[in-house]
């Protein structure tokens, strides 16, 4: 339990004022009942001065509870008016310090009670000693209860703070995952469209002798691809604030249309499908993205070179996807899309491998689980 701050709150001022008045009033009442006729004025005055000093010391009980309680144990041997203030200081030690310290202070005050009985010699000393010890135990027990309750409340507040912090971190991680998913979607969707645009624009640049019909046909393909890319971009931006699961997602059935678009762009593509059964949506979507990334890389690094795509699989055996094409212009430092594919495959407990073959081709191979 953290030690209390020395700065008092309005509540602390109210509590300290009430405790001071309690110690002063009850201390004077005990003094009045215990003072004997014929007592010396010096002894009476000293008793009152010590009691008042100890009552004033209550204002500093939060800062030095143990020291003041030990001083009170000595003063209470000689001063009747300090009795109530001593009880308050025992309570303060139990509230603000550990149990071991509280027991130490309790023991010292019990010893001081023994000396008080020897000095004052009150009537019925045995009964008085039992009553005072019981009062010490009650006050210390009350203080320990207050301390344990405060510790419990502090623990609950700490747990609430930790839960709030964890919730914020989870929300931030969720936002980060959403951004990564959106970035991956934009790369997959727009990268393929822009690669088609690049291929057709490059064909126009390297064919100055093309006929008017060929130029018009290529320009129409460029226009259609640009329009479709703009539509895809609008779809992705339109759902930036939507849950990630609501992003536009392709299906495995869209794979032939994807290959057909690449063929129209002038890329020789051979597609082989040996799939027995209906693929789960998440597996089919991942397979589509793998083929899309393979075609995009082929158009970017080996435009005009033949591409072979083979998909085979059955329930219980998994689905294999392979995209192979010559890669004479493949450069290091490129492959963010391939890294994204690796992450996609890992999400469905699959794997992706890519690299050059001994024949000089670039091979993109993936295996995706297909439950039976």
UniProtKB/TrEMBL annotation:
CDD domains: HATPase_UhpB-NarQ-NarX-like. It catalyses: ATP + protein L-histidine = ADP + protein N-phospho-L-histidine. Residues 179-243 form the Signal transduction histidine kinase subgroup 3 dimerisation and phosphoacceptor domain. Its EC number is 2.7.13.3. The keyword Protein transport does not apply. InterPro entries: DUF7134, HATPase_C_sf, Sensor_HK_TwoCompSys, Sig_transdc_His_kin_sub3_dim/P. Residues 12-150 form the DUF7134 domain. The keyword Membrane applies. Keywords: ATP-binding, Kinase, Membrane, Nucleotide-binding, Phosphoprotein, Transferase, Transmembrane, Transmembrane helix, Two-component regulatory system. The chain crosses the membrane at residues 12-30, 42-61, 68-96, 102-119, 126-145. It comes from the Bacteria. One of its GO terms (molecular function) is protein dimerization activity. GO terms for cellular component: membrane. PANTHER family: NITRATE/NITRITE SENSOR PROTEIN NARX-RELATED (PTHR24421), NITRATE_NITRITE SENSOR PROTEIN NARQ (PTHR24421:SF10). This is histidine kinase. It comes from Kribbella sandramycini.
